[in-house]
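step 3/5: co-fold with zinc ion
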Amino acid sequence: MKQFLFIFCTAIFITACSPKPYSETNKSYKKQVKQFATNFKTYPLNDSVGLPFANQFVGTTNLSMRRPNFIVIHHTAQNSCDQTLKTFTLPRTAVSSHYVICREGTVYHMLNDLLRAHHAGVSKWGNATDLNSSSIGIEIDNNGSEPFSEMQMNSLLLLLERLKKTYSIPTANFVGHADVAPGRKVDPSRQFSWKQLADKGFGHWYDTTNVEVPNDFNALQALRNIGYNTSNTKNAIQSYKIHFTPQDTTNFLTNGDRKILFELSKKY
Ligand SMILES: [Zn+2]
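step 4/5: write tokens
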């Protein structure tokens, strides 16, 4: 009875807190999650790779859900949270993210952290591809050419702290959409302060005071080591600059960049 009361109260709470226009899409979310649960419970297992190994099923006693290992940050390129929530609840857009952070700091959670959101698209960071499968996507409500609000950044930092701790996400694995999709994406924009994040342990930063770069230092190799897909050099450099030297809009590497990359490549 106690359990029933708890579920009942939680249901009332969720209904009361969900913005009204989304009661139908909330139902759709629950229906899809229920289907996943049914798939998990199905016995005998269906081997998704098409081989018949499920015929020799021996259920282990030791298992848990897979965990996210990267955080990918975006700006929405839209004008309001309402617009973004609408975009992420229309099936035809096929896009979503785990969290949306509004200008006044409100955070909307749109799917369970352990499920796959559709935010990164074709992506690569180091040897990791399909970042959607291994990351949590955070969209920040911002049109791409305005500052990020203080309240928004405070909410973001609080969320990052919790996610880093809960899923043991490595410091180096906090990246932007532009970082994992050079040439295709430029978010979050140059107005986003990655230094502010790095100061709190989300991503790395650099100090080039008294740094001497060895003559044989290969800056492009360093970009690759940090994680950038360097198959198109100009695009990789652009993404690096958006993140690490946002005031510089050129797409070639200077001596200053060589120092920064030398420092960063020791950390990533
Ligand atoms: Zn994005």
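step 5/5: annotate
Residues 74, 177, 185, 187 surround zinc ion (CB under 6 Å).
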